[in-house]
Design a protein that fits this description.
The structure holds 2 protein chains of 2 kinds. Chain A is mainly alpha-helical. Chain A contains 11 helices and no strands. Chain A has 2 domains: about 70 residues, no CATH class; about 190 residues, MetI-like fold, CATH 1.10.3720.10. In chain A, helix 4 crosses helix 5 and helix 7 packs antiparallel against helix 9. Chain A starts with a helix and ends in an 8-residue tail after the last helix. Classes of the chains: A mainly alpha, B alpha/beta. At the A-B interface, helix 1, helix 8 and helix 9 of A face strand 6 and helix 2 of B.
Chain lengths: ~290, ~260
């Protein structure tokens, strides 16, 4: 049965597609959007270069120096200082904290959100408290996190989890509460009642909203990681940024920023791809 | 009542329904009595607010009655169940399931073995002619196809009565006519019982064995009309038009009475 699934679907969508896909301009079209997207960063690079290059006392290094530093950070062999060739270690440390914190947030926020959305008593019990705690910025938790979890990676993971927690929770609650009531009627007249509806209706119906929460949560996890790694850890992209700042190695600071940007972008892209696979049925996601 | 076969499949006894809407009491349905025999095709017709949808939702078990009883094979209706399948105007399909998944939802929810579910699904996909779209998701289907899935879904789940709440109301005229034909065809082949809500006089006469005329304020059953035209019915014929006029006058006289 599943063999025909893949042959049938394109037939359907092909009808909806515009015939312009076959036009000779398609080749140019394919490269047009990336080209437009590149105009702005290239312009920034050019301006950055001409405002910093060759100036002895510039506090901001020119792009070429950052590029060399980024290479040295990744592979070593140029400066051979304490930072050379350490990028992978720092990246892996940050990755493990981002995904570790994210996983903890997911493990708590998802079931909690499902329960708050579906069970009035749990909503009355927890929702007011959670709403009051929500506006407290993650940075404000930093001192308390260091007291509770001590100096080290545990504080960083806690802060990342905290940052990812609310987007996942809020979107899960929203998803669960906005399930079309018609679907409950449909399920119950077809013989799916009570708790079975939770898994056969509530969960799949709220999956698009949950996925939006996951993307936002993972994004926040990357935002928080630098703050999290200010808590006295030795490794991590946040840690080298803070250390380089103290040594006035601005080119390392910028290199760290670039790596966080790229890593965050790739991780978001992966979640997006996963979402598009799992949510092929949703017109908003496909 | 000597013959057990004469027991009506559905028996509404003095069914009333009141709603509380913004601290106002709305009488949606007052003292509705209706008997439906197995295999009958009944159309409920009337202006909006006449309680025809409320009546259907009570039979479906989505709403409790305020007074009176809805009896299915003599047993009081207590909540929704697969013997009464509902086809909604807005389809109510599960968007995350394919056509196959939607049709198989009922049987598999009720714990039928997978092989049996597969067979049932294929049979009803054939019945509604959706073989080519069996693995499509609802958002990829046209309105007419979605409604075919919704019909197949309740039939695959052994519904004895199919409750249809203006099922073709959102479709274009051509699709609507095709689906009316297909529905009649399925009804004749399967011996279903159909309770069909519509506001179209023509649709009611074209489909029904019996048209139940309802009127608003409070919602109530006014009268009944047997349609004895042989099928397939020709909407252009003189007989059809005579019935159309008669039914139209009935509907309007009820409205006139309300205004007086």
């Amino acid at each position: 049965m599943s063999v025909t699934a893949d042959t049938n679907a394109p037939v359907l969508t092909a009808a909806a597609d515009t015939p312009s896909r076959r036009s000779p301009l398609a080749f140019i079209d394919k490269f047009r959007n990336p080209a437009i997207a590149l105009i702005f960063p290239v312009a920034v690079l050019v301006i950055w270069h001409f405002t910093t290059y060759g100036r002895k006392f510039s506090l901001i290094p020119p792009p070429s120096e950052v590029a060399i530093e980024l290479y040295d950070l990744a592979f070593g062999g140029i400066y051979d200082d304490a930072f050379s060739g350490t990028l992978l270690t720092h990246l892996l440390a940050s990755l493990s904290r981002v995904y570790g914190g994210f996983a903890i947030a997911l493990a708590i926020a998802l079931p909690l959100g499902l329960m708050i959305g579906r069970i009035p008593f749990v909503r009355q019990l927890l929702d007011p408290t959670l709403q009051v705690m929500r506006p407290i910025p993650v940075t404000a938790w930093l001192p308390l996190a260091m007291i509770i979890f001590g100096l080290g990676p545990r504080s960083a993971v806690f802060l990342v989890a905290l940052g990812a927690f609310y987007p996942i929770l809020i979107n899960t609650i929203f998803g669960v509460r906005s399930v079309d009531p018609r679907l409950f009627e449909a399920a119950s007249m077809l013989g799916c009642q009570g708790t079975a509806q939770f898994f056969k209706v509530v969960l799949p119906a709220s999956l698009p909203a949950i996925f939006t929460g996951l993307r936002l949560g993972l994004g926040f996890a990357w935002v928080v990681i630098v703050v999290g790694e200010m808590t006295g850890v030795q490794t991590g992209l946040g840690a080298i940024i803070m250390e380089a700042r103290q040594l006035s190695r601005t080119e390392i600071v910028i290199s760290g920023m670039i790596v966080i940007g790229i890593a965050g972008f790739i991780s978001d892209w992966l979640v997006k791809m996963l979402g598009q696979r799992l949510l092929r049925w949703s017109p908003g996601y496909a | 009542m000597r013959d057990p076969n004469m027991l009506p499949i559905l028996d509404l006894k003095g069914v009333s329904k009141q709603f509380e809407l913004q601290s106002q009491r709305i009488e949606a349905l007052r003292d509705a009595n209706l008997q439906v025999r197995k295999g009958e095709f009944i159309c409920l017709i009337g202006a909006s607010g006449c309680g025809k949808s409320t009546l259907l939702r009570i039979v479906a078990g989505f709403e409790p009655t305020s007074a009176g009883q809805a009896l299915m094979w003599g047993m009081p209706v207590q909540g929704p169940a697969p013997d009464r399948g509902m086809v909604f105007q807005d389809y109510g399909l599960f968007p995350w399931l394919t056509v196959r998944g939607n049709i198989g939802f009922g049987p598999s929810s009720r714990g039928r073995p997978a092989a049996e579910v597969r067979d049932t699904v294929e049979r009803f996909i054939d019945l509604v002619g959706l073989q080519r779209f069996a693995d499509a998701y609802p958002h990829q289907l046209s309105g007419g196809m979605k409604q075919r899935v919704a019909i197949a879904r309740v039939l695959a789940n052994d519904a004895e009565i199919v409750l249809m709440d203006e099922p073709f109301g959102a479709l274009d005229a051509m699709t609507r006519e095709r689906l009316q034909d297909e529905l009649l065809d399925i009804w004749q082949r399967t011996g279903l019982t159909v309770l069909f809500v519509t506001h179209s006089i023509e649709e009611a006469i074209f489909l029904a064995d019996r048209v139940v005329v309802m009127s608003p304020g409070p919602g109530r059953i006014e009268s009944e009309m047997k349609i004895e035209l042989p099928r397939p019915r020709d909407v252009m014929s003189a007989d059809f038009n005579a019935i159309r006029r008669e039914l139209s006058e009935k509907l309007h006289s009820h409205h006139g009475r309300k205004a007086a």
